[in-house]
Design goal:
This protein is mainly beta. Helix content is about 10%, strand content about 45%.
Length: about 475
């Protein structure tokens, strides 16, 4: 009888939740949406004799990752002037840590009564509020306040994983000027990075715990264990952006960012479409950007408190990038080049400690951790084609990482794999060239989106390898993602 009662309660709760969701859908002002994602990745390391290879459970080197993430979102108009949005994010291993994957794609921690705990199969189904925001609208001015996703060139939400990161922010948007959107942001917190300056990028782009944005624990930089105090950098970032479409064939974007105690950055971009001019689907993109330490972080680096370079210089890492793309007989082609100068900080997503980058030379793995690193020259060529409802894509990327002499580079010393390019270059003590080949196949079956990626990395960092093997061997990776949106 006890089991029946429990089953009945669960059934009633499920029916009640479904009925409530249906009622919300019926409300003309609100919309229910969501997404469920199953994410799996397996890796084979070259030069590691004990490596078990692809698709084989390995609890020694952690070659396999898996998670199932689910997001439920309710959004819409609460009144004539107010919109609301709430999103609940959950993630679980579904028991895969026992036979399929020894690591998780949702790296980090989740809030609990005993503090921050690592995600694990025994943790049940951890969840958190991914979004909770209000938008007040007056004419052409909107103010969005609360926990939300962001999409700017150097601070953005990464949604490539089973979970996505978000921010606690206030965003003012105005469109009074013709063909112009002006955006002003205050970013207070995020869940894509910790507070240790020299820590590795958040490899999987999200944590469940939210910390003060760009506040670095300079006292406990090596461990991150000491509490934030007056000796550490204060958090929070201001940003302003302008998007202008006066020339409809060439929109221009410009952003400036400042976290007074940590970094300042800029991004300018032009996108040119020649389709209406020459009758062919040809486009080009140009980017000039840069990022530099300032305030207490700048002082900290100059004093070489990171401990790995005497007489540390500080300054902007500038980036110049360009891309040309064309669609010829149904084949999408692209070629991209980028060059960054020597400096302290990658030209990449500050929201995830510089994991992903919007530079057009990024590959799946050689992303912000390589393509956007200081003193790096990158090249990417790619092609895509759709046949019988199946998208097929392939690309080749080449990345030459220079020595970056005299600069103490952040996000490199604690944790792994840190900057793959930095580790390889430092271990061999000279400039090095890494490459990546990506082959992707994706399709949609009913409501399910299915994607499979094969990734070949050469001359790279090999987890489990010796220092002598860095820059000599490579990795082979297979990633499979199945998702359903509603």
């Amino acid at each position: 009888m006890k089991k029946v009662t429990k089953l009945s309660l669960v059934a009633l709760m499920a029916l009640g939740t479904a009925a409530y969701a249906e009622e919300v859908k019926k409300d003309a002002g609100l919309k229910v949406s969501g997404k469920v994602t199953a994410w799996y990745q397996t890796m084979a390391h070259g030069g590691v004799s004990a490596d078990k290879g692809l698709f084989i459970y390995d609890d020694v080197y952690g070659n396999d990752w898996a998670n199932v993430g689910a997001m439920l979102r309710v959004s819409g108009a609460a009144s004539d002037h107010v919109d609301i949005g709430v999103a609940l994010q959950g993630v679980t291993t579904m028991g895969t840590e026992n036979f399929l994957a020894s690591a998780e794609t949702a790296s980090g921690a989740y809030p609990s009564t005993t503090g921050l705990q690592s995600l694990s199969g025994s943790a049940g189904f951890p969840f958190w509020l991914h979004e909770l925001h209000f938008t007040y609208k007056v004419g052409n001015t909107h103010v969005k306040f609360g926990r939300q996703e962001l999409d700017t060139p150097l601070v953005f939400t990464e949604a490539w994983n089973s979970t996505a990161n978000s921010f606690e922010a206030a965003v003012l948007t105005n469109t009074d000027l013709p063909a112009t959107t002006i955006e002003a942001l205050w970013i207070a917190k995020g869940n894509g990075a910790g507070d240790t300056l020299h820590s590795a990028p958040q490899v999987f782009g999200t944590e469940a715990g939210y910390s003060t944005f760009m506040a670095y624990n300079l006292d406990g930089d090596a461990t991150g264990y000491s509490p934030l105090d007056s000796n550490d950098s204060k958090g929070g970032m201001f940003a302003v952006g302008v998007k202008n479409k006066t020339l409809s064939f060439m929109p221009i974007t410009a952003y400036y960012y400042s976290a007074p105690d940590a970094v300042q950055a800029y991004w300018t971009q032009g996108d040119l479409s020649l389709k209406d001019m020459i009758g062919m689907d040809v486009s080009a993109q140009g980017i000039i950007a840069g990022i530099a330490p300032q305030g207490k972080v700048d002082t900290y680096l100059k004093a070489d408190n990171g401990g790995d370079k005497a007489g540390t210089a500080t300054g902007f890492t500038h980036a110049v990038a360009g891309k040309v793309a064309a669609n010829i007989a149904g084949v999408a082609l692209r070629v991209a080049l980028s060059k960054t100068t020597a400096g302290n900080i990658p030209v990449a997503n500050m929201g995830t400690n510089y994991k992903k980058t919007k530079l057009p030379t990024a590959s799946i793995f050689n992303d912000g951790m390589v393509a956007a690193q200081p003193n790096t020259f990158a090249m990417l060529i790619g092609a895509g084609y759709k046949v019988a409802g199946i998208n097929i894509g392939a690309s080749y990327g080449s990345y030459t990482i220079g020595t970056n002499s005299g600069f103490d580079q952040i996000n490199t010393n604690v944790g792994g794999p840190a900057s793959m390019g930095y580790i390889v270059q430092q271990k061999i003590g000279a400039a090095t060239t890494m490459s990546e080949i990506d082959v992707s196949v994706s399709t949609k079956i009913q409501e399910f989106s299915i994607a499979a990626h094969y990734i070949n990395l050469s001359n790279t960092y090999v987890p489990g390898g010796t220092a002598a093997s860095y820059g000599t061997f490579g990795n082979n990776v297979v990633r499979i993602v199945v998702s359903e949106s509603f």
